[in-house]
Amino acid sequence: MLKVGIVGCGKIADAHAEQIRRIPRCELSGVCDRDPLMAEQLAERFPVKAWHTDLDQFLETVRPDVVHITTPPQSHLPLGLKCLAAGAHILVEKPFTIDAGEARALIDAADRAGRKVTVGHDGQFSPVARRMREMVRRGYIGTPPVHMESYWCYDLSDPTYARALLADKHHWARQLPGGLPHNIINHGVSKVAEFIESDDPDVVAYGFVSPFLRGLGSTDMVDELRVIIAEERGTTAYFTFSTQMRPSLHQFSIYGNRNGITIDEDRRTLIRLPGTGFKSYAEHFLRPLTIAGQYARNSARNVKLFLKNEFHMDDGKYRLFRAFYDSIEHGTPVPIPYREIVLTTHIMDRIFAQVSAAPGRAPAPSGATA
Amino acid sequence: MIAAGMQSQDGHMSEPLPAASPILVTGSKGFVGSVVVRELLQRGFTNIRCFARTPAGNDKLAELGRKFPAARLDVVHGNLLLPDDCRRAADGAVLVYHLAAGTGKSFPGCVLDSAVATRNLLDALAGSQTLKRFVNVGSFSVYSNATLRRGAVLDESCPVERAYTARFDAYAYGKTKQDDVVAEYGAKHGVPYTILRPGVVFGPGRGGSILGRCGIDTFGFFMHVTGRFPIPLTYVDNCAQAIVLAGLAEGIDREVFNIVDDDLPSSSRLLRLTKRNLGRFFSVRVPYPACLAFSCAWEKYAAWSGNQLPPLFNRRMCAAYHKGNRYSNEKLKRLLGWSPAVPMDEALRRYFEYRRTAAAS
Ligand SMILES: NC(=O)c1ccc[n+]([C@@H]2O[C@H](COP(=O)([O-])OP(=O)(O)OC[C@H]3O[C@@H](n4cnc5c(N)ncnc54)[C@H](OP(=O)(O)O)[C@@H]3O)[C@@H](O)[C@H]2O)c1
Q1: What is the number of alpha carbons within 13 Å of residue A117 lying toward its C-beta?
Q2: Which of B24, B26, B53, B98 has most ligand 1 atoms within 8 Å of its beta carbon, as the pocket-test mutant?
Q3: Nearest CA, atom 18, ligand 1
Q4: Cα–Cα distance between A237 and A147 in angstroms, integer?
Q5: What pLDDT, in 10s, does the model give residues B124-161?
Q6: For residue range B160-178, what is the model confidence (pLDDT) as tens digits?
Q7: What fold, for A2-119?
Q8: B5-207+232-261+325-346: what fold?
Q9: How is chain B split into domains, by residue range?
Q10: Among A33, A303, B75, B217, whose CB has the most other CB atoms within 10 angstroms?
Q11: Residues of chain B numbered 139-168 and touching chain A (CB < 8 Å)
């Protein structure tokens, strides 16, 4: 029985605890948070035998095999190092670390300690993301990818959250180098990073403060990003983060030299985009029908998965956690290659280095070539 | 100057609180908090610290400031999750009306903004030489009516819901933890407190529906469940008056008061009035036992499926909202001398008028 612990009992910890308890061969053995009320509430509801407010004491008494680190990202490196030193494997919520330097340091420490590490990029393990990966592996798109488009948006229209974030200058999300998007875009960027070969692709970023946020009095919190990523072998990607566009997309498309694929994480659909068309008018008459057929099959598949009880909201987390635990128990590869973790962080560093709006200044869109 | 609050009709107050006593109101720009501030000003208090998280809503307080030029309205911006902000808020306060709360759907979020925020504020107040009373605004949602029959009276003697996971109500959970924290600080640190638990507060300023206790509005049509039983409404002005009085009355330390108005409308009447005033919509009468059976099935499916569908509908929630109870404000009247200044019919008229105007603009 794998002993699992959680450090950081805030909002995302609930989602972790929920999925951990679905995995039969592990036990949520203890939780830890600096704030006793937060540690207690998680322990009380799931229920977990032990809750702690001191990390050393938690590691000492619970002796977890795996620790899920679900604290604000600023603390991921120091807490991760402590857990590794105590002999635990670590699953670190996104963003993995503040920057790529910290990411490398954490992974190196894990290697030295003979422990494993992964990051909470659960979007990579959603049902459609897994299907897409398998199709790409089988060569459906042709290799290598020619172009990708990744949308990872965030609906800020509920002003309650926006206002709370704006009012609290000390909110940890605001303290991140990239501000609000830093805490959100990881999923969308990691989808691109998975298919980029270079460790240092070109990144061109353009960012600005949306009129909505400006209306709420914010001039320094960039919440619109448009990014181009390119590498020498000819693979390119567009990445979009928006708080304002509707629908608020979570979509990824990948195009090879033969075919393309589009996945939609909100509707949980995967659409094949054949590279060759029907002849003449048939392309106009038949193609829409075949695509409609694909949507119908996606619907049926989703219903089937639901009936089989394999369609949980956080299914990606469940798959990621299981794969990570497998890699610990059976020595299988870690679910997310370390290279992909570092590259995701590196691309984000490059984006945020280019996109900044000075506080108090009119939000001039900024862009620069890396 | 003597605060007008001291001349209230109840006869339970001793030493009047000087009008210039520093009074802290948290959640002061919220729906109820802003009316509490107005009520304090109307009673002649002149030194009110309005604590708020965000600048939005400053205009509401500015308008009050213009109406009561002799009073000092300090707007202090801060977050009760930050101990320093709590110290700034608490400094020298004689009376605290604590209305800030977490109202989201996440359990940790509600615990943070309700319980942790309250604990931080009480930490800043513990040992205070000036504090005379901490008025904690709780909620009706903390009660369990599992052991009550349909139609039985739900009052302050009812047990608090402790089957948190079965009830699956993040807001109620946060408010229960908040009350626990207050009671703990009362016992351990001698903080003088009173807990008020309003029912459904309504009135101008409240967006959204007040039909939550009448039925379920999740599936594209309205399932009306509560039928002939009353809905525990309280008009925002009446509610604010009760809250303010709880800070001024003597001899009510550690007491708990429920706030509901007189002449509560039945669920059927409230639904009828809502349709008539705000526009028709399709509703189906669902008997309570059927709703309970549905909730039971949903709850069991949630457990079986590992929360593929979370247990948003469950027996305890169904009972708390739709079983149908009667409500008492006898304690409030007896110990605080409160009575609802705005009668129910007038209150409903004002509320519907506000909603119609808001919809039109
Ligand atoms: N409305 C009802 O029907 C009802 C019924 C029973 C009990 N109550 C209780 O009555 C009280 C007032 O309710 P309401 O309807 O007026 O709620 P509301 O309009 O949502 O006001 C709550 C206020 O609390 C503030 N707040 C939340 N977290 C905070 C934090 N960490 N630091 C500082 N301020 C924080 C919010 O600030 P932001 O605006 O910045 O978010 C908001 O202004 C609450 O305690 C509620 O539980 C209400």
Answers
A1: 32
A2: B53
A3: B30
A4: 5
A5: 999 899 999 999 999 999 999 999 999 999 999 999 99
A6: 999 999 999 999 999 999 9
A7: Rossmann fold (3.40.50)
A8: Rossmann fold (3.40.50)
A9: 5-207+232-261+325-346
A10: A33
A11: 164-165
